[in-house]
Amino acid sequence: xxxxxxxxxxxxAVMVDVSDKTETERTATARGSVLMQPETLKLILDGGxxxxxxxxVARLAGIMGAKRTPDLIPLCHPxxxxxxxxxxxxxxxxNAVDITATCKLKGRTGVEMEALTAVSVAALTxxxxxxxxxxxxxxxxxxxxxxxxxxxxxxGTAS
Length: 159
Fold this sequence. Notes:
Family: Belongs to the MoaC family.
Distance between the termini: 38 Å
CATH architecture: 2-Layer Sandwich
Mean pLDDT: 92
Shape: elongated
Number of domains: 1
Largest sheet: 5 strands, antiparallel
Number of helices: 4
Number of strands: 5
GO molecular function: cyclic pyranopterin monophosphate synthase activity
CATH class: Alpha Beta
CATH topology: Alpha-Beta Plaits
Domain Molybdopterin cofactor biosynthesis C (MoaC): 15-150
Protein name: Cyclic pyranopterin monophosphate synthase
Catalytic activity: (8S)-3',8-cyclo-7,8-dihydroguanosine 5'-triphosphate = cyclic pyranopterin phosphate + diphosphate
C-alpha cells in the first residue's frame, strides 16, 4: 500500500513510515475544560484542595502526558518535543478550569496527538485531585484548535 496508512499490504496495523517526509517546524494547540460545582472551583482558587495546588500539578501532569503520548496511543511515533506549554485558567462564570496545551518540534510528523494528550491528562489530574469533593465534574470540549507545519500546512485558529 502506498501513502500514509496504519495498515500494511496484508491489512495488519503498522506505524506509518515517515522516513521520506521532510523535517519542518510543527506546532499544535488543543483545548478542553473541566466543569465543576462553584464550591469546587472556589477550593481550587483558594488553595483549599487537600491534595495540593491543583493547577500546578495539572500543568506538570499535562507536560508529562505529552512526552508519554507514544506510550498511551498505539502507533504514535516517539517524538523529541522541543516545547510543551500547558496553561490552566479558572472561569468562575462557567465554573470551569480551561486548559490549553501547545506542543512544538522540528520533525517529520505532527504533534496533534501530543497536544490533545496534554489537555486530557491535565483535565484528568484536575478531576483526580478534586473528586473527593465533586464526583460530578465533567471533562468536555477536548479538541485540536490549531496546527501548523508539514505538508498539510496550517489549520484552525489559535485565538
